[in-house]
Amino acid sequence: MLPTEYKELTRKLLADAAEQGIPMSGTFELTSRCNLGCAMCYIRTRAADRAMKASELSAEQWRDLARQAVDAGMLFLLLTGGEVFLRPDFFDIYEPLTDMGLILTLFTNATLITKPVAERLARRPSNRLEVTIYGATEATYEAVTRQPGSFRRFLRGVDALLEAGLQPKIKTTLSRLNVHEFDEMRAMAEQWGSSFSAAWLLTKRRDFCSSSVEEIRFSPGEAVDLELRDEAAVENLRRLAEKEEDHTYDEAFYCHAGKNSFVIGPSGDMNICIDLCLPRARPTEIGFLAAWEQVKQFMGSVPASPTCSSCDLSKYCSRCPAWGYIESGSLTSSVVYLCEIAKERKERSLAMVGK
Amino acid sequence: MKARSGYVMRVVGEGSVLIPTGERVVDMNGLVVLNDTGKFIWQCLASETTPEQIAQAMVEAFDVSLEQARTDVESFVAELDRLGMLERHHASH
User: What is the value of pTM for the model shown?
Assistant: First the structure.
């Protein structure tokens, strides 16, 4: 019997799907292009990038992939970018998806959302709508987005969503550029009646292009200071310190990547997760199910990191093959930045419990 | 009464769920888990019917007394009503 409480239900559905290798959770990256130019972004290409635009799947191809994925068991689907509303055919993709029996989530920066767009979206709302805020003031917001006028357009977009009766969840990506406005951003979200969350663990770009993320992401000490502002994180560290046995793992992917979830990128490559552009299966050429088989096989072929799986910091560490690949060029490499964060976590958590 | 249109029933793992589509998400954002009885009742509601007709059909389909079937139908129909998932033709009452 399935549980009826929503969180428990989704947890059970996803756990069962992982066990059976059913692709229940999908992500479609409709474009990597974005109208903002955030320094910390792992994916962004220019909005006007013609080659990139030409390589994107058509609306019909996305709809066809969605139908195949639903037949294979997809229940949860995230639509993200880049910025999805850069695609003039966004609604040609989105609206048919809303009839397929999916639990849909939509990510946007809201800067391209006008009143008509919001009203059209509200007629067939996604189950979840997440909007990213980059700062609470024009100066900070635009220091992050490097796009003059974007703060004003963001506020207009959020207002349009609220006026249309949509209630976005507000989230931010924290860096040294905007962390000083954390409380103000949270206050704005509260004022809009929205929940608020923040991410701060920033990777380099997944395509290995140069980025300035290392200049703006937090030092390990700053990162853990920030983390400990959250009560749940404090409690989690305390629990880890009290746990006697070391956390060892013998599989490379400790999440659901390649077990019940997949990502299809803008030009149709099917990959194991949003950060790791492998194995680049081609569902438009070989069919969804054959591509999913390749993703599962890839997941099973990656060995656990010999260094990390026996490390005494592993229970404090967020490393995974995607981090190893992006930061150190190998699926099994350790990641110096994460090693240092894990050391900080261990020291702080042991101090918490007086060890 | 009958089920409102705009819900898709999907078999997931060991059970079935009802998922709102299109504009129905405005009315109900989430999903409804169906057990075997719920699935049967929902399928009966695909066309115009009454609680008594569904209960009778349940007696045929499951090893259950009419009294128990009436109770099950009543409680499930009340839940569907609460979620706004039924259409009722008031003129016929």
Answer: 0.94
